[in-house]
Amino acid sequence: MTINRVKPVVKRSLVDAQAAATAAQDDSFHPARHNAEQAVLVAVEFTGHRRKPTSAASLARKAAAVTTGAVDLDMHLDQNPDEPAPPQRTPEPDHADLDFEASLAEFEELARSAGAEVAATLIQKRAKPDPATLVGGGKLEEIQGVVGSTNADLVLFDHDLTPSQLRNLEGKLPCRVIDRTQLILDIFARHARTREGQLQVELAQLEYQLPRLAGRGKAMSQLGGGIGTRGPGETQLETDRRKINLRIDHVKEQLESVRRIRRQQRQRREAVPVPVVALVGYTNAGKSTLFNALTEAGVLESSRMFATLDPKLSQLQLPSRRKVLLSDTVGFIRNLPHTLVTSFRATLEEVERAELLLHVRDASSPMVDEQKLQVERVLGELEVTGKPVIEVLNKVDLLAPEERAILAATEGPRRVAVSGLKKLGLQELLAAIDAALVADPLIEMNFRLPQSEGAVMAALEAGAIVEGKRFEGNLAYMTARGPASLLNRYRRFRENPKNALKEGH
After folding, report:
1. From 150, 156, 269, 409, which residue has the greatest number of CB atoms within 10 Å?
2. Where does the Hflx-type G domain lie (predicted)?
3. How far apart are CA 399 and CA 102, in angstroms?
4. Global pTM?
5. Distance CA 366, CA 56 (A)
6. Contact at 8 Å (CB) between 428 and 476?
7. What is the DSSP-derived secondary structure letter of residue 336?
8. Cα 416 off chain centre by
9. Tens digits of per-residue pLDDT, 21-42?
10. What are the structural domains, with CATH classification, of the chain?
11. Residue 165: which pLDDT band, with cuts at 50, 70 and 90?
């Protein structure tokens, strides 16, 4: 007997379990097929402490104070540029609250990235959330009125809703209700291109739906119910849960198969050791633009959030002629759903395995410091700690000239100001990467080898800087400076071991 399973919901726009069933019957649902859906945004500010945003201009002024000795750099830029990066830490949540206005602007951009058109935005301030509907009764009536006057297709909440809040709101509003996690899941679904990415999004969506099935029995039954699918004595809710759990198990099996292939590919790649350098950062910080500027790889660049979802790898040659693999990864965001962090752990393995992290920060953002804390929090969840980090202050072309000049005064081995778009500061960044790869230091070695070893000479010339070369009879004498891993591979041809630098031996 074939058991009908819940259909994958990946790649559906702004869809929960009930909407998926409706969409199967009505093609007009999907905004990509027709006009964008009209959305009413609702944000609630719970009164309490608020963190004042740190603008790039403020950051530059603080940096200027550092140069005069008026303040300690560690207080404001977190790290002395001339010292090694300290181990990353996961900040306390209270210290990472984004400013409410900036948070609201970010949520509006999320809605647009999902294909919605913002018809109206409503804000409420309250001491604590209403356990039944998040917002108060008066605000709920206002939402009902705005939905009616704008003919909105959905209401988006910039908060996670409990299953009971979601059900109550759906019962009182004449349109679909989407919370923050569901919206982010939808954007991920839109941008997943690889099989692994699609499976990871579907898994996160299913795990999100599971505790929210109550009251949706009819919709879920349309997704695969029928004769032979219900166990003895099961209620509709129990049947729906069983079907989703079956689908979750199936997706996990498929994911494991895909990951086995990924592991095999990585093992083949690691047979020829090449350091991995991973770009990390807040969404829309310009990672893909910087990736393209460094590698000319042609990765999609977009101002939309989460435009890069599937990891990208490209080889990059440094000034020392050392070759590294540069990895572009998904951007992080405040309150990134835990299900996504878990589901995308395999995709983020390149970050875990990287010898060096480039933390790309939007220097023009008024929330540059808060965004940094959010990124560090996710890295803490991934248990990626203790790795060397270079802070890459991107988008400096958007700063005023005096701000750029002051910011430049704070640069050092662990902090570089660049513009991926204008290709400013890239050589300084490449030099910083070269210097930071302490696991594979640059060394100098003298070689004496037969001229018949043309492949060895070619490898040295391709991967190192040949500072001298001469021929005597059938022998070639070379002095090369390059990565220890490369030069030590051919150490059997060393002319004199004492001529090699001590470091790395």
Report:
1. 156
2. 275-441
3. 18
4. 0.66
5. 6
6. no
7. -
8. 20
9. 333 333 333 434 346 899 999 9
10. 1-51+97-272 (3.40.50.11060), 273-436 (3.40.50.300), 442-499 (3.30.70)
11. very high
